[in-house]
Amino acid sequence: MRQLISRLRLNYGQKLFLIATLPLILTAVAISVVVTLQSRQLAEREIETLEAQLIEAKRAELKNYLSIARTAFVNIYGRAAPNDDRAKLLVTQILAGMLYGQDGYFFVYDYEGTNLVSPRRTELIGRNWTGLEDPSGRPVTDELIRLARSGGGYHSYEWPKPSTGERAQMVAYVAGLQDWRWAIGTGVFIDDVVATVAKSREKVEARVERTFLYIGAAMLAALLFVFVSGLFINIRERRLADAKLKRLTQRVFDAQEEERGRVARELHDGISQILVGVRYALDTAKRRLAAGDARAADTLERGITHLSGAIQEVRRISRDLRPGVLDDLGLGPAIKALAEDFGKRTGIETEFTTVVFRNRLDDEAKIALYRVAQEALTNIERHSGATHVAIDVRGHLNGATLRITDNGCGLDEAQARQGGSSGLGLRNMQERIDQLDGTLRITSSKSGTGIEASVPLTHEIWAKVGDA
Q1: DSSP characters over 417-468
Q2: What is the pLDDT at residue 53?
Q3: Distance between CA atoms of residues 268 and 100, nearest Å
Q4: Is the model more confident about 129 or about 292?
Q5: Is the terminal CB of the chain with fewer CB neighbours within 10 Å at N or C?
Q6: CA nearest to 466, candidates 319, 371, 354, 337
Q7: Nearest to residue 427, comparing CAs of 388, 363, 372, 367?
Q8: Which segment, 32-41, 187-196, 257-266, is predicted with the most confidence on average?
Q9: Mutual angle of helices 296-321 and 273-291, in 10-degree steps
C-alpha cells in the first residue's frame, strides 16, 4: 500500500482526503451490506412464514372439501361391493356435480391411471394418464395414485386453470378408496398466494432500496463535509508549502554557492599552488639546461612529481563531485574506496563490511547512500574526535541499508563545539533519504554516534552476483 501511494505521488491534500474518506466509504459499504443482509434474511423468514401459513390454510380447506365429499357418498360406498358398477356410477355423478368457486372441482383416477371424474375438464375423462408430468417435469397422475395408495396426502404441481386456461401452481389433496382402487381428490390454485408472496418481496426490495438511499445520502453529506474541510486544509497547506519551498530554494542556492566556494578554495589552495610549483620547476630546469647545468634533470623530475600530485588532486576533487567508481562498479566498491581514502587521509581506523547482494538500486538511491556516507565521514573527521569507524552496507529484498558507527564524542558535544552549525549535514542526509521514501535513523551518546539509512527499490533488476 505504501509503495502504491509513493508511486501515485499524491500530494498532502489528496492523501488527507483519501485517509479521511476511505474508512468512511468502507464503513458505509459494510453497514449497507450488513443492513441489506439482515433485512433480507428477516424479510425472507417473514415471507416464508406467511407463505407457509397461507398454504396451510389452503391445505386445511382442501381437506375439509374432501371430507364434505366423502360425507356425500359414504353411505353408497359403505354398502357397495368392490365390483358394484351402479354404486360407482352414482358416486361419480355426485362428485361431478360438486363444484365450488370458479375453479374448484373433484377428480377421480383409478389405480391404473384412467380418469373417471373431471367436470371442468371433460376431455380427460375415460383416458389413461399414467406418466403425465407438468411443464417443470413433476409427475402428476403417478404421484396422486401413489399418495392415494398410501392413505392420502398433498401434492403441488402446475395445472391449467379452468377460468383462464393458463397454467398456475396448484395444491391438491388426494385420498384413496381402497375397495374400489380409486384416487379421489380436489385441488386449489395458489396463484393468489404466489402473488401475495411476490408483493411482499417487492415491498422488501423497496425497503432495501430506501435504506441504500438513506445510507448513500448520509455518506454523500459526510464526503461533502470532508471534501470542504480537506479543501480548506489543502489551501492552507499549499500556502505553507509555498513558503517552505521558497526557504528550500534559498537553501539550494546557498548550498550551491557553498559547494562552489569549496571547489574554488580547493583549486586555489591545492591545485593552484602545485601548478605554480610545477611552473617554477620547469622554468628552473629550462635555465639550467640553457646553462648546461647537470642539476636540470633533478629539477625537471621534481616538476614531474608536482604535476603528478596535481593530477591526483584533480582526480580527488572529481571523485568528490561525482565518483566514477559508483557508476562503474556499484555502490559497495564506491563506499569501500571512500572508506579506504578516509582512513589513509585521517589516520582513523576504518572498518568496512558488506554482503554481496543481487538487486540493483537505481542511480538516485546509489547517489543518496553514497552522499550520506560522504557527509557522515566528513562530520566524523571534523567534529567527532573518533578513533574507529565501522561502515556496513547490505542489500535485501526491499532495498539497501547503510550503517555507519563511530566511537566519538556524540552529536550533542560536537554541536556545542561547532556552535550548533553541524545540523546542516544531517538535514541534507534526511532530505536525500526522504526524496526516495526511505528512512534515516540517528542514535547518539557519549560513546559514539550511529547512522542507519535505508532506501527502497522502486524497481528490481536481477543482475550478476557482485553488482551492488
Answers
A1: HTTT-THHHHHHHHHHHHHTT-EEEEEEETTEEEEEEEEE-SS--B--TT--
A2: 78
A3: 122
A4: 129
A5: N
A6: 354
A7: 372
A8: 187-196
A9: 160
